[in-house]
Structures are given as C-alpha cells and as structure tokens.
C-alpha cells in the first residue's frame, strides 16, 4: 500500500485504485450479509423493509463522516442512497411484496 502522493506513474496509481476497489467490493459484500440478517429480524418483528427515519439517519451519519474526512458529502449521500435502495429492494424480496413504509 502506498499513498497517492507516492505513486510515481499511472501503473502504480491504478494498482492502488484496483486494491481499493477490491477492498470496497469485499466490504459491500459483507454489508449485504447484514442486510439479509436485517430482513430476518424485521420479519420476526413485523417491520417493513423501508423505515424512512433509519434511511435519513444513515444519510446524516454518512454526510458527517464524509465531511470529517474531506470527501464530497453530496457524492457520499448519492452513493449511499443508491446502496440503501438496493438494500431495501433486497429486503423486500426477502420479506415478500406489499411492505409499507414505517417512520
């Protein structure tokens, strides 16, 4: 692992980007296992897949963490909203159709 500043050419830079992409995919895959478990717990509690208050809480958390690290918070929010829409659709598939929104 080397910092972006330490990369001397595009080959080195691309290798680091590829390394990070591999790590991100692994983390997203791990996150998906928690989404599957969330659907199981929601089913046991009679909760819907989409809980809007939780969606907005995650967005606030991601924006705050992004701002703290210097990442573009608007970009992070767009990425996480897409990720959460996938997660909600996955939960709905696991829970069955016809889930209603709960705040």
UniProtKB/TrEMBL annotation:
Residues 4-95 form the Chorismate mutase domain. Coiled coil: none annotated. GO terms for biological process: chorismate metabolic process; salicylic acid biosynthetic process. Substrate binds at residues 14, 31, 42, 91. It comes from the Bacteria. PANTHER family: CHORISMATE MUTASE. This is chorismate mutase. It comes from Falsigemmobacter intermedius.
């Amino acid at each position: 692992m080397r910092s972006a500043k330490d990369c001397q050419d595009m080959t080195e830079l691309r290798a680091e980007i590829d390394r990070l992409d591999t790590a991100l995919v692994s983390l997203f895959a791990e996150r998906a296992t928690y989404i599957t478990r969330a659907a199981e717990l929601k089913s046991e509690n009679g909760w819907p897949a989409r809980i809007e208050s939780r969606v907005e809480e995650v967005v606030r958390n991601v924006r705050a963490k992004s701002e703290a690290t210097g990442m573009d918070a608007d970009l992070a929010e767009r990425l996480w909203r897409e990720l959460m829409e996938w997660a909600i659709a996955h939960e709905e598939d696991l829970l069955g159709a016809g889930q209603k929104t709960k705040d």
